[in-house]
Structure formats: structure tokens, C-alpha cells
Amino acid sequence: MAAAASRILIVEDTPTQAEVAGALLRTLGLEVRVAETGAAALEQAQAWRPDAILMDLDLPDFSGFEAMRRLRAEGVEAAIIVVTAHGSVNHAVEAMRQGAVDFIVKPYAKARLTVTLQNALEKRALVTELREVKAQLGRDRFFGFIGASPAMQAVYRTIESVAASKANVFITGESGTGKELAAEAVHHASPRKGRPFITLNCGAIPRDLLESEIFGHVKGAFTGATDNRSGAAKLADGGTLFLDEIGEMPLDMQVKLLRFVQTGTFQPVGASRPEKVDVRIVSATNRDPWVEVEAGRFREDLYYRLYVVPLHMPPLRERGSDVLLIAAHFLAAFAREERKRLRGFERAVEQVLAAYAWPGNVRQLQNVVRNIAVLHDGDRVELSMLPPMLLRGATGQPVAAVEEAGCPLVDPKVAEIERSEPPYPAPTEPQAVLSSSPQTPFAATPQARPDHEEVFQSLAEVEKRHILAALDRADQDVPRAAAMLGVNPSTIYRKLQAWRGEAASSRH
């Protein structure tokens, strides 16, 4: 039964009926109070805050239905159980419409009231618990963001804290983590939300056009300047200018940007007079800005002007269950767009999504879910619908479950090579294969054989063993292996294709 602290308000104008119900409830260890009118019920409910209310429908001043409407309007959240001698279907339906959780007809058995009240109290306790858990987790939606993880709650709080100020914001994070979405959130949460939000990708504009894109130009300033043109700084007047990939900006352009940040003034290319604007600058980069400063690629004085409020966007792999929240959101959107029936993920698929490292972050997850929605249909997403790269990268996924779905865990190109020739034992540490000591730079490690002289492998064999070892370490994920080796993924794909051709030739 419910805890002894549970409070029950009996709304009953017949004293004998109220006494019988009260005596029963007290034997169950519950606190009981009685109200004989609707007005008294409203007063008691506000002052005492009961957990449940037994509501009679026939009251001296107004009906129990009216009392229920007023209780809800005043924010009383107690579970209401209607108790009446009029047990018609219409009464029951109306009681439920007004928010009652159950309906009991007089006279009632002790067991009926006990079970009904117990269910109502347990349901109310569950709702309260869920509300508290949600309050602890925080929001799972925020200006276009989806995520309830602690890392994202910190992002939300930072955006809310800085939004009202004029301070410049510097956003860092890996590609695909939502840096532009964060910049938009800063703008839309600020008093500037009614003014323009202008985005400029510094890495996508040729360096000889960057100054014109930011500050604009006048007619005849250079070849092709056939008319006056406002730049991003002018267009963003009163609003926010978002400089994405600012680490790609050339040093000579950084000098001009520094002056603009310091004074709020700029001079269009070819113009004779400066212009002044009121612009808030939000910058972003996927690099470590201080490392760029130390390397001489980013001006230190500009760094201090822009890096006023840092905002780091966490990678998807550090956001826990946010992966499933975001995947569900994308699946609903793309299934609707593609007119597919997909409405959720099988448990095994959720395990794969949660275990994958997501090197491309939210953008990669979005592309994966879109791929599934375009190519497949069904009630739920199954393992067989996932791209092979996810199954290779899901280190926590049981192999049997994946293999039963017919999804290979190993890259087919690698598997064919390994079937066609004797396997090479992977070294315990890849560094053991190649040595960078001054005495023997990049020398192949000798293989000692009893009673024989040392036999050296060819450089081609050493390279092959090293690449295959890296692929093993990366669970056959070519991009991850390439990152470990410091090469472009296309290099590994090219090697794999060449080895496959050699294996095919040897069989013929």
C-alpha cells in the first residue's frame, strides 16, 4: 500500500458516508481530511495539498464536476477518484474528461476502494518521479539542439548566460558538432534576435576576395566590381556576424579584422571613407586556437579580442544517450520526407548506434539515418539496414547478433586479402615494426631464426603488415586507421585494392 505520509481528502456531504470511508482509509495508514462542500474542498486542497481526492458528485453548493474543473484551474495535481451513487456511463465519461483517474459506484467494497486508491497513488508517484528526473536531466531541446546530456546542459547554460551581453563568443569543437547552430542560438537568445544573422565561412572564400566579402567594395575597386556591394559587416549591422572556420583566415586579413573588432569601423575596398556598424562577432574553428597562435598562424592580439567567452561543443561520442535522441529525431523527419513506415530502432541497432565513435559527429549521424530512410522500409530499423562501417566500428556489439543479420564485421576487401594468402601476425605494438632511432632510421625489425642467419623483410612487406595491424587496431575502420598512421584514407584504399589485385593474379 502507499506510504503512511499519503494524504487523502474526502469530499462528501453525507457524514455517515464520510465516516465510513475515513475509517477505512485510516486503517490503511493514510492521513484523512473531510470537506462537505465544493468550496471547502477547494480551500482544503490548496492549503493541505492532498495526494488523492475522493470526490462525490452531488454537493450542496455546486457539482463535483465543477469542483474538479476549479481544482485543475488552480493547479491542484491530486489524483481524483469520483465516488457517487449515480453510476451511469455518461457520468463516468464526464468524470474522465474532467481529469478523474477512476470512477467508483456506491456502495463499494473495501477491496475495490483499496485497489483503486493504491493504483491512483502509485501513478501519481510515478509522474512526480519522472518530473523530478526530467528536472535533474534538464532540457532535451534548446534552439534547435537535441540533447539532455550534462555536456549539452553546460552548453545551454553558457549560451543563456552570454546571450544578453555584447561580448564576442568563440566556439570550438570538431567538425559536425553544431558550431553554427550554437552561433545561431547565441543570436536568437539575445536582444539582437530581430536583427540579421550573417554567416561567413572564411575557409570557403578565396583569399583575394575575403576582404570584399567581409567589408564590401565600391564600383571600380577592382576588375569585375561593376557596382557597389555591401559586405557581411554592413549586412550584419545591429545583429550578429558569424565567422566560421576563422582559423583559415590569412594573416594579412587578420590585421584588418582586428581593427574592425577594436573600433567597429571598416573601410570597403576602394572606398575613401570608413563606415561604422554595431555588430556582435561570433567566431568558430575546429582547431585549437591557442595552438594556432603559438604556431604563428593566428594573431595573438586578435585571439584576445575574439576569445572573450569560449564555448566548446562536445563531440557526439561524449554525449551518451543523446545519440539515440538525435537518431530518433532524424528518423522521424526522414521517414516522413521519404514516406516510409520506419518508426524506431531495434534494441540491437540502438546498441550499435550508442557504441560507435561517430568521428563525423552529428553530421555523420544525420547522413547515416538519411541513408537508412532512403534505402530501406519497415516498422523498425534492423541491423541489416545499417551501413557496414557502423558494424565494424561498434566495439560493444555482439558479433553473433550482427552476423545473424548478414552484416560483415570486417571490410570485404581486407577479408579477401586475408583468405587469399597466409596471414601476417599483427605486432603487439605497431611501433615495433618500424623504428625511428637515429642509428637505424625506419629499419625493418629482423626476424631471428634458430641456426640461420637473420632474415629481413622487404619494405613493401613491412608496410603491408603495418597497415593491416592498424586496421586491426581500428576494427577495420579505414578512416580511423589512416588517422593512426597519419596518412590519407585514400592511401589505404589504394593499397588494399592493389593487394587484392595481386591476390587475384596469384590464384590464376
From TrEMBL:
Ranges for domain Response regulatory: 7-121
UniProt feature, compositional bias: Polar residues: 433-442
Span of the signal peptide: none
Keyword Cell membrane attached: no
Region (Disordered): 419-447
SMART domains according to UniProt: AAA, REC
UniProt modified residues of type 4-aspartylphosphate: D56
Domain (Sigma-54 factor interaction) ranges: 145-374
Transcription regulation among keywords: yes
Top-rank taxon: Bacteria
Annotated keywords: Activator, ATP-binding, DNA-binding, Nucleotide-binding, Phosphoprotein, Transcription, Transcription regulation, Two-component regulatory system
The protein's name in its UniProt record: Sigma-54-dependent Fis family transcriptional regulator
Organism: Falsiroseomonas frigidaquae
Lineage of origin: Bacteria, Pseudomonadati, Pseudomonadota, Alphaproteobacteria, Acetobacterales
